[in-house]
Hints:
The protein is α/β, with parallel strands linked by helices. It folds into 4 domains: 12-252, ANL, N-terminal domain (Rossmann fold), CATH 3.40.50.12780; 254-363, Rossmann fold, CATH 3.40.50; 366-434, Luciferase, domain 3 (Roll), CATH 2.30.38; 438-534, 2-Layer Sandwich (GMP Synthetase, Chain A, domain 3). It contains 17 helices and 26 strands. The chain has a 7-stranded mixed β-sheet with strand order 2-1-11-10-12-13-14, with helices on both faces. Strands 7-6-5-3-4-8-9 form a 7-stranded mixed β-sheet, with helices on both faces. A hairpin with a 2-residue loop joins strand 22 (439-441) and strand 23. Helix 7 (198-211) packs across helix 8 (236-243). The mean pLDDT is 95.
Amino acid sequence: xxxxxxxxxxxxxxxxxxxxxxxxxxxxxxxxxxxxxxxxxxxxxxxxxxxxxxxxxxxxxxxxxxxxxxxxxxxxxxxxxxxxxxxxxxxxxxxxxxxxxxxxxxxxxxxxxxxxxxxxxxxxxxxxxxxxxxxxxxxxxxxxxxxxxxxxxxxxxxxxxxxxxxxxxxxxxxxxxxxxxxxxxxxxxxxxxxxxxxxxxxxxxxxxxxxxxxxxxxxxxxxxxxxxxxxxxxxxxxxxxxxxxxxxxxxxxxxxxxxxxxxxxxxxxxxxxxxxxxxxxxxxxxxxxxxxxxxxxxxxxxxxxxxxxxxxxxxxxxxxxxxxxxxxxxxxxxxxxxxxxxxxxxxxxxxxxxxxxxxxxxxxxxxxxxxxxxxxxxxxxxxxxxxxxxxxxxxxxxxxxxxxxxxxxxxxxxxxxxxxxxxxxxxxxxxxxxxxxxxxxxxxxxxxxxxxxxxxxxxxxxxxxxxxxxxxxxxxxxxxxxxxxxxxxxxxxxxxxxxxxxxxxxxxxxxxxxxxxxxxxxxxxxxxxxxxxxxxxxxxxxx
Length: 543
């Protein structure tokens, strides 16, 4: 027996239509590559998205065609999100920090028809154009007055849309229709594509609105420092319009000073991004002795946030939500907002301990941990195994990659994350490490994350990473790689003293190496793959 309810397909364009009618005063503020600041409302955006829909059709884009973007966080990029998927196309966001080899691979693998690019990326594209699809159409995201040198043969975004009507007859698409395509980064081998549907995207927006609702309210002003080219900026381009929150887009300048000035001027209430970005902002806050006006919450994800970073924000009056997810999960899977019962009963130190974990699952995402034989392990906070996930916002396979799909899914269709984790009885996820980043010493595991989270609190350490080095007796031993803060060099004895309060003696790093900077992946995470390659021939001292 079925219920007698209407069935209306979930549609991305309907999110913006709703915002344009209901949240008419909410803003989109953008720092532009042209050097100025642009602002308009969701109502204005919906009209321009209609013009862009007509322009895309005029370029020959049909349902299922992939349209690529190579752009910073800004209003034109936001418009592309809605217009491409609204007409039935697939918005393929490209990370500009990818290598030429990876950029070439994904444009061909995705079979991109058109590439929209910000002015800053024209030289990059001109340098690799002969390697990209030969029939690609290029559109520079600016007006005629700001078309840059080297853009001959490329179309102008504003000229392209100005000739069209603001009213577009948006088609009613099946909700399973593909809407956007994101490729993984920082992995071995070629990047793998996750292709999201209208249904999964709208459900993910609902989920974020419910789970992180304290940051996403009508009148809130949200800064996505997480890029629009990285997993759809964690869903913010969809959730903010749904809830009536304004979006403040920072453009290309993500240093601490630029972020502070923008946040202070626009009275940003909540900012979302990866830990490497917040290090710069915290340094600027410390230098000025004050927070940006209105700044009250931060969402940290992408990689594990050090406990000292969380504590620094909390002491400054900025509440921290430590979240976890993956490209393959749209991406948010857990959120770390502390329930009221915990805030009322636990000490500040106990709360910080919990905030340093990866949070609890959001509605619609299920978690399980399994041993090497695939048997489910208890959620007792002690048992550790590989983390598997499933849900309406989790991929069922990789785009045009059956081998990777077969390797990722178990017999029941759960997706294997590659993380080693525990789950507490009250649902907190504890990521022990990426399976490939765990260090196996004498048959026992050492978590690189556990060591890093302690060492980063030392005042002479700007950033650090721990990797495995081959050892003739113990198989692998940990090497600590440190970027110093200033001229001081933390000693091995100091590190050992700090760590022994948290880990066993046999887990201490065997050596410390100092570097000027840590290599980062295209999404701002520390690239341990690069570090392992750099130190492949490293010889540990005799112990």
